[in-house]
């Protein structure tokens, strides 16, 4: 499972660079609403990763039962 | 030293991609609706087509449909998604960037694919937002929901784009 999810590291890294790293580099961390934005971004990423994991597990189970 | 020489095309590609991303972010921070016409105009056309609305350009705010009560403004342009998609496609394609020519070709392809993918994913995101705007949400915070929807659709779209690009690349490798 871990090997099959490794590909997600690239889109996660690219997304976090754009939505968190560069804004922090530009001084956005000092903004009052930045923590809220960062929390939403991380929660959204976690939700999508969870959907991918659940979907992958279901596909794997279906394949395993067909064997 | 030999490692640098061996990977010089890949290092140059990553440096170019990062420079494009930083420059793109700076450009997007101050861009007006007119500056973003190259991405907002086709997006507005696609959203009009998908939602059955009629978004027309209005100097200042962007593309508006007052019948629906919705404006496609500069923050809706999806430039952040385009930059993330470009970066992900470049990073994912590093393995094939063995020569300067291959690296240049990959960078151009990544930019073109990122642009098209942005139009598609952003249209989906705005169409969902328009549908949410038309729906009674029982007093839920619309701005909060709009923001969460954007994150989920953009990040989900980025993962889907990257997965498809990887699948196509590995299929090509098998046929080669």
Task: Please render the helix and strand layout as text.
The complex is a heterodimer of chains A (67) and B (176).
Chain A: H1 2-5, H2 9-25, H3 34-66
Chain B: H1 2-6, H2 8-30, H3 37-51, E1 56-58, E2 62-65, E3 70-72, H4 79-92, H5 100-134, H6 142-175
Antiparallel strand pairs in B: 1-2, 2-3
Task: Provide a brief overview of the structure.
The complex is a heterodimer of chains A (67) and B (176). Chain A has 67 residues and is mainly alpha-helical. Chain A is 81% helix and 0% strand.
Low-confidence stretches of chain A: none
Rg over C-alpha atoms of chain B, rounded to the nearest angstrom: 19 Å
Please give the share of residues in helix of chain B: over 70%
> Major sheet of chain B, described briefly?
3 strands, antiparallel
Strand fraction band of chain A? Answer: under 5%
Chain oligomer state: heterodimer
Principal-axes geometry of chain B comes out as elongated
Major sheet characteristics of chain A: none
Helical region count of chain A? 3
What spatial form of chain A do the alpha-carbon principal axes imply? elongated
Helix content of chain A: over 70%
């Amino acid at each position: 499972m871990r090997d099959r999810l490794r590909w997600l590291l690239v889109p996660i890294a690219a997304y976090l660079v754009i939505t968190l790293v560069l804004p922090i580099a530009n001084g956005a961390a000092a903004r009052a609403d930045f923590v809220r934005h960062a929390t939403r971004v991380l929660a959204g990423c976690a939700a999508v990763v969870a959907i991918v994991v659940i979907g992958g597990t279901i596909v794997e189970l279906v394949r395993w039962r067909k064997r | 030293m030999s490692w640098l020489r061996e990977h010089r095309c890949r290092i140059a590609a990553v440096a170019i991609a990062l420079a494009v991303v930083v420059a793109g972010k700076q450009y997007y921070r101050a861009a007006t609706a007119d500056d973003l016409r190259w991405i907002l105009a086709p997006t507005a056309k696609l959203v009009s087509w998908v939602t059955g609305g009629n978004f027309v350009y209005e100097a200042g705010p962007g593309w508006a449909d007052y019948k629906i009560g919705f404006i496609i403004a500069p923050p809706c342009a999806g430039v952040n998604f385009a930059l993330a998609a470009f970066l992900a496609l470049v990073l994912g394609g590093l393995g094939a960037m063995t020569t300067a020519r291959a690296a240049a070709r990959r960078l151009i392809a990544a930019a073109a694919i990122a642009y098209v993918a942005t139009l598609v994913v952003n249209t989906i995101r705005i169409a969902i937002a328009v549908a949410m705007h038309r729906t009674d949400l029982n007093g839920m915070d619309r701005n909060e929901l709009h923001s969460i929807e954007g994150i989920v659709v953009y990040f989900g779209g980025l993962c889907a784009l990257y997965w498809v690009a990887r699948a196509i690349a590995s299929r090509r490798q098998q046929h080669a």
